[in-house]
Amino acid sequence: MPSTAPSPELSAAFERGGTPLSDATASDGALRRFLHGLPGVDAVGLEARAASLGTRSIKTTAKAYAIDLAISMIDLTTLEGADTPGKVRALAAKAVNPDPTDRTAPRTAAVCVYPDMAATAVAALAGSGVKVASVATAFPAGRAALDVKLADVRDAVSAGADEIDMVIDRGAFLSGRYLKVYEEILAVKAECARADGPDARLKVIFETGELSTYDNIRRASWLGMLAGADFIKTSTGKVATNATPANTLLMLEAVRDFRAQTGVQIGVKPAGGIRTSKDAIKFLVLVNETAGEDWLDNHWFRFGASSLLNDLLMQRQKLSTGRYSGPDYVTVD
Predict the structure, then answer these.
(1) Which of 330, 332, 251 is nearest to 290 (CA)?
(2) What residues are annotated to the active site?
(3) pLDDT on residue 23
């Protein structure tokens, strides 16, 4: 059964008189005490559990369900300097109809683009139900002044983006300036508000490959959630180490524990390096066994991917026909 109860270590930390959540962001000192009061991560245990869950075998009907679920969770992504309106429109068409030979294939969750391509994606996806996500805040490095980052967000939101994927200031985080990171997330969250429609949902990217330790990933997860993130996201996909089973498991534990403490549910998005159906199914097992079935929905779990969809479609075709079609039977992104 999924382990959806809060971790005993976290419960013990609160019982020992640590800073209450309601007071954790009252000052720089309070935030530091709270984040450094979180239980340390047992790296060996974390990686062993992630590896163990990755050995679960999913067969036949359950595998077909998992493949369709994974397709429906993809943020189909193009984040290249050579992006064109034509490429974005083609990607949007694929998001709506991933397999032209099989209309039963589910749509992807979203198409993710740079802010200057958001309006093109919005127009191409109008009425489809597929969301438009836009990276912002000087993605991927985040090395810009706050007013520049906020202008980036405003451009995407005004273009109609449904979701904003922001990067945290890793330099500030790693130097212990947690309140600066917290206040920046708050400012971005405020820019996601709309007067004439639903607010854009905010995904906060940590770039886990640059945070160096699991303890830092746990602290970043709680920092992002305290600041109002709707999703916490592993990576930009632009560095050497992106989503892994272990760092995603750690973030799933964080959202599980946060909901147990606050009643607020937060989504998780692993991004970068997830390329095969086998990989995707391993991550779905992590979700089910750690956070629980409530997260097995594209409102609460996403894959940041570009090449993953093609492998899922090929595996889907194989289950349907008994034959492996190969890459020539799916469109090239």
Answers:
(1) 251
(2) 165, 233, 269
(3) 87
